[in-house]
Amino acid sequence: MRAPRPRAILAVLGVLLLTACGTAGATDGAERATEERVVRVAAAADLKFALEEVADLVAEEHPDVRLDLTYGSSGTFVQQITNGAPFDLYLSADRGYAEQLVDAGLAAPEDLFSYAVGRLVLWTPDGSALDPAPGLTVLAPEDAGTVAIANPEHAPYGRAAVAALRAAGLEEQVRPRLVLGENVAQAAEFVRSGNAQAGVVALSLVLADPLRGHGRWVEVPVDSYPRLDQGGVVLSGAADLGAARAVREVLLGAGGTEVLERYGFSLPGS
């Protein structure tokens, strides 16, 4: 029996390689078809816990979409996005900031939307001698200690807190004792950790699991500060506009609004 010729061996190897390449190509194509569609979200800090639940709803309705969530100050995000930060969806604690991005040509007018109305509370930590029940007036005495708020320079909740203190006639008395957080979540953390004796922070945060049941709080009258109309926008430079818009629809849908209401947000138009 003669040994196989070299040319015959090469021909067989060529067929095997083509078959292998075809199989690999089909596998790669299947993997690409099931790749995650990542939506990079710049979100106001008051959404920190509510948005985690909305992300679960997104996963249920759109299994191929995943949220990459970054929380911070709404004003700081505007600066970052204007300077080219790679976000797809922006959720602000002040709709005005989202409108600025539309005016700057970074988002289309039809991609602007309102999603919630935020609310302020006066919160004191466990063990504090301060009873918040009477409202902001308990902060008047100097021995009431330090008061945490978000930085009003770029955080809507900080501006609202200053306005509420001014409406109560307490701005000048309390200002020297203010401790400023980079955002409202950090201001709440100052209170939780004992680095501030009280805080004027977001209702959504004190209703969330890490803070729920700790300390005492009372809602600040909504007519004492500018209405916290919260709005967002899908950015024109989004890597996947369809996926970013799908996330927006989940947030504005029945499931998303139920989550927002559970965390103390009012709905637009209310």
Describe the structure.
- It comes from Georgenia halotolerans.
- Belongs to the bacterial solute-binding protein ModA family.
- This is Molybdate ABC transporter substrate-binding protein.
- Residues 1-26 form the signal peptide.
- Keywords: Metal-binding, Signal.
- With 270 residues, this protein is α/β, with parallel strands linked by helices.
- The chain folds into 2 domains: 37-117 and 228-262, D-Maltodextrin-Binding Protein, domain 2, CATH 3.40.190; 119-224, 3-Layer(aba) Sandwich (D-Maltodextrin-Binding Protein, domain 2).
- The protein contains 10 helices and 10 strands.
- The strands form 2 sheets. Strands 2-1-3-10-4 form a 5-stranded mixed sheet, sandwiched between helices. The chain has a 5-stranded mixed sheet with strand order 7-6-8-5-9, sandwiched between helices.
- Strand 1, helix 2 and strand 2 form a beta-alpha-beta unit.
- The longest helix has 28 residues, at 6-33.
Multimer state: single chain
Number of structurally distinct domains: 2
| Secondary structure: helix percent | 40-55%
What are the segments in which pLDDT stays under 50 over at least 5 consecutive residues?
1-33
Keywords: Metal-binding, Signal
Protein name: Molybdate ABC transporter substrate-binding protein
Family: Belongs to the bacterial solute-binding protein ModA family.
Organism: Georgenia halotolerans
